[in-house]
Amino acid sequence: MEEEFKYRAFISYSHADEPWAKWLHKALESYRIPRKLVGRQTPFGPVPGRFAPVFRDRDELATATDLGETLTRALRQSAFQIVICSPKAATSKWVNEEILTYKRLGREHRIFALIVGGEPGASANAATADQESFPDALIYKMGSDGQLTAVRSEPIAADARPGKDSRLAVKLKLLAGMLGVGLDELRRREAHRRQVRMMWLAGASVSGMAITSTLAGLALLARNEAERQRARAETEAETARQTTNFMVNLFAVSDPNEARGNSITAREILDQGSKKIRTELVAQPAIQATLMETMGTVYTSLALYPPAASLLESSLQKRRELYGDDSLEVANSAEKLGGVLTLTAEFDRAESMYRQALALRQKRLGPEHVDIARSEFLLADLLMRRGEYEAADPYFRDALAMRRKLLGSDNVEVAKSLEGLARNLDAEGKYDEALANMRQAVALQRKLHRLPHTDLAEAINNLGLVLDDMGQYRESEMLYREALKMKRFLLGDEHTEIALGLNNLASTLADQRKYDEAEAMYREAIAMQRKLLGGDHPDVAAALNNLAFVLHDKGDAAGALKMMRESLEMYRRSVGPEHPSVARAMGNVAMWLMERGDYRAAEPLLRDALQMRRKLLGDHHTDVAGTLTLLASLLIETGRLEEARSAAAEAYAICLPALGPAHWRTAAASSAEGAALAGLGHPRQARPLLVQGLAALRADAGALPFFVDMASRWMAEFNRKQDAAQESPTLTATSQRSSAH
Questions:
Q1: What is the rounded (10 degree) CA torsion for 521, 524, 530, 536?
Q2: Mind listing the pLDDT tens digit for each residue in 531-579?
Q3: pLDDT for 617-630, tens place per residue?
Q4: Quick check: 427 and 385 in contact, CB under 8 A?
Q5: DSSP for 432-466?
Q6: Contact call for residues 669 and 651 (beta carbons, < 8 A)
């Protein structure tokens, strides 16, 4: 960004939209730009380390005596202008004047819009004119005389209205445009996290609490039984206590914090005990339900999820029959079952269990209780895993506040709440706040656990995640290794948490281009996940997807294609035949088939993926545009130019308003449309699309090599044909190298 600019951006807004302006001001200035982007040369200059300062006139002009002069100077010193658009802004004289002033500086291409209300274009109809979002100065282009023309412009806009972009998406879209980088580069960390770390449920939240939470539930069960059935309570409670103590002592080695690395060899005893509980305690259903829950918890701590789920399902059903649907015993069983269902990626059922447990506890225990705090934390964690970050935030914050109030600040549950909140903030892109909370959590865990502990290992791992997302790979790698070493000591060499740690470490190694070591760790993690989670699981499919790209980066195109096909088939089996992950994998396979020239095999994959994405995402989603661009490329290479032009034009129409003209996806669509037009014999229309598309693709480091290579070849072929045409009196339209494949 040019050195003469004092401000990175100038925010123009109506007083009625001040809350949005304050949020945007803080969001932009606090955003930490990925380290690997800093210093990159873009059309707007080198990418800065921070996007600050940002000018917001209500703050900057508090003591100004000459409003007009100060505003003009600030606009002149701002690299970009962001207009917060709403019906109030559309009728604001000052907002309109600020846009005019900035346009007269010759910076019309540096204006971005954030729509927070109303409807863009509503002023074209007198009946809806009062709902117009854009001021006139934004709607119309400026002429060379410094006055608005009657030609409508197409403002580059992010849309924060209900049902549109999330706040995170709004922030990233605006930043990508103003930094001159690809939106996918800023989104990549979130997307990569979803692929590599779909199992982000903190292991300690399920396994670390296994024995202690079981004992707490048993104590609560005994107390409630005493209230309801005084005549029999003492005998049953004593029997349950003795039986539970026996089971806990028998399987104490299953608690990794007690075992200290000893091998666990009790699987046969567990299986035999489970059979006895089902067959020999039929006449004592209360004790049977209690021991089913205990055994289910032990199975969970050993990552033996199918038998755990079976026992916990049975325990829940028996407790419903014994105590009714509104009992705290039912809440305890529902929560335990929700934990296992989360680990097996059955998210809808898990959420239902967690919400039942929370509602029952709030009804029976009142507004504040440690068990309510735990229910809120687990529900928040599940919502975060599903990408519902805004919905998760209040649950994380409520759980943290409640635990601090009830348990004090120096408590392990407070540390876990800090971690959960930090992970959610990290997912939202609020990295500075996330890092502060996560460092506080790790410090507290180190204070509370002088010896290796699963809670401490998880906190260290999660701090590594945040630093990885911030581009601080060396510190992240160091923390990942520390956490993995501690987990191996506590859990042994095979556990879902070990696989998760390997995946995380592999991802940061790949980011540092340490491909051989990353590949080895991905393979170790995949083998472990297959053994523990079964042959078909979305986590395994995601790990295969990630490994495929490492192989492709290493030059093993055949191995990458084979791995991606395996990932695709596993996604189909684990999440169903129609799912965004399935469509994405189909597109990846098709793209790599096209690299090999196998268009016949690629085409049905692309057409099926396109149909699926239209159905699941709607016709105007950028993922739909991505598939259209791939399909257009295939059609060009096979000589079906008219259909190719139509597909590319549709892709371009989707990408331009959503991503802007400089984004590589927009550029790829532009280049494909240009190639189709060239093949159809329209060189004048084709040239600017080909030239601009190739330039933008080469400028965007996030562009996939496939599209850069295609655009380069199309441009070279166009130039050859134009040179030949200058030597010949006639120019005939030919197809684009279809015979070469």
A1: 30
A2: 888 778 888 888 898 899 889 888 899 999 999 999 999 988 887 788 7
A3: 678 877 889 999 99
A4: no
A5: HHHHHHHHHHHHHHHHH-SS--HHHHHHHHHHHHH
A6: yes
Tracing tokens 């559309």 back to the chain, one arrives at 90
Residue 498: HSE in the Cβ half-sphere, 13 Å Cα cutoff: 25
Interhelix angle 431-448/412-427, nearest 10 degrees: 160
Single-letter code of the amino acid located at 655: C
Q: Which among 616, 644, 615 is positioned nearest to 631, based on CA atoms? A: 644
Mean pLDDT of 717-740: 60
Residue 480's closest CA among 447, 451, 512, 444? 512
User: What single-letter DSSP state applies at residue 700?
Assistant: -
> Contact at 8 Å (CB) between 53 and 29?
yes
Asked if residue 692 lies in contact with residue 667, where contact means CB atoms within 8 angstroms, the answer is yes
- Look up residue 521 and give its DSSP letter: H
CB crowding 534-564: b at 16 or more within 10 Å, else e: eeebbbbbbbbbbbbbbbbeeebeebbbbbb
pLDDT at 700: 66
Q: Which two tokens stand for residue 696?
A: 């933008």
Residue carrying structure tokens 């991905």: 522
d(CA 294, CA 244): 8
- Is residue 351 helix, strand or coil? helix
Classify strands 9-12 and 81-85 as parallel, antiparallel or unpaired.
parallel
For 512, the 3-state DSSP assignment is coil
Question: Cα(199)–Cα(424) distance, rounded to whole angstroms?
Answer: 14
Q: What is the pLDDT of residue 190?
A: 46
Quick one: average pLDDT of 329-333? Answer: 91
d(CA 602, CA 597): 9
> How far apart are the C-alpha atoms of 709 and 93, rounded to whole Å?
49
E strand residue ranges, 184-285: none
